[in-house]
Amino acid sequence: MSEETVPGTDESTAERTLGGIGTRVLFEDDRVRIWELDLAPGARSDVHRHELDYYLVQIAGDRIAVEPEPDSAGEYREYFAADVVPGVVVPMRRGGVETAVNVGEQRYHEIIVELKDR
User: Fold this and answer.
1) Phi-psi category of 93—alpha, beta or left, where left has phi over 0 and alpha has psi -120 to 50?
2) Average pLDDT in the 31-49 region?
3) Cβ burial, residue 27 (10 Å; 0-12/13-18/19+)
4) Start-to-end Cα distance in the chain
5) Distances from the Cα of 90 to the Cαs of 59, 86, 87, 114, in angstroms?
6) Is the pLDDT at 10 greater than 50, yes or no?
């Protein structure tokens, strides 16, 4: 995963390292970047920033949550937990600075398709 150290906007985000939005990049070209996110029950993703609009494709799991950072933008400012619906495709806007947390009892798996040309 890629990492970036960025200055924060307040004491809680003073100096933090941002990781990739997924576990690994599966494919990338000039139009899209496709990530896989795979989290065991109780596992957390790296803190990451969504710089691009993207599609989230849920593959497996039962519950997933998102913990936003204080500088998360737009609609991504509140803790959110939801049931996983395998096969669902969710369009998402850029701007979130967050950590994904598998709050379920099953392994969570998703594919993220970032759109570079938007």
Assistant:
1) beta
2) 97
3) exposed
4) 23
5) 12, 11, 10, 12
6) no
Residue 31, phi-psi category: left (phi > 0), alpha (psi -120 to 50), beta (remainder): alpha
Bridge partners of residue 66, in order along the sequence? 80, 100
H helix intervals, the chain: none
CB atoms < 10 A from the CB of 28, how many?
12
Q: One-letter amino acid identity for 108?
A: Y
Measured CA to CA in angstroms, residue 22 lies from 14, 50, 51, 99 at distances of 23, 11, 13, 10
Q: Which two tokens stand for residue 26?
A: 């599966």
Q: What are phi and psi of 8, to 5 degrees?
A: -90, 180
Instruction: Tell me the residue type at 18.
Output: L
4-115, what's its fold? Jelly Rolls (2.60.120)
Of all residues in the chain, the percent with pLDDT exceeding 70 is: 86
Tokens of 94: 């850029």
